Amino acid sequence: MQYIVTGYDFTDDGAVQRRLNVRPHHLDFARATKAAGNLIAAVAILNEEGNAVGSIMVLQFETEEELEAWKSNEPYVTQGVWETVDVKPGRVAEL
């Protein structure tokens, strides 16, 4: 099953710095997720100033338990970067 994961960042005073601090860990985790065949695409959501305020990831997992395991280990979740995380089932078009 494929999933569209949308994470929106916290907006407190420390949110931008927290994202910057956690970003290397998030990218390492994303690379490992891609190497495992579970990451299809990743996109930063930008505000009007061009700063990242969230993320969209298209992931695929055999089970919802694998998705939940991913989510419980994603650094932007565990380190308080994403305030909300929305997960919807989806399907990438074969073009």
TrEMBL record:
Domain called YCII-related: residue spans: 1-89
InterPro entries in the record: Dimeric_a/b-barrel (IPR011008), Sec-metab_biosynth-assoc (IPR051807), YCII (IPR005545)
Transmembrane annotation, as ranges: none
Sequence similarity: Belongs to the YciI family.
Entry protein name: YciI family protein
Protein species of origin: Mucilaginibacter calamicampi
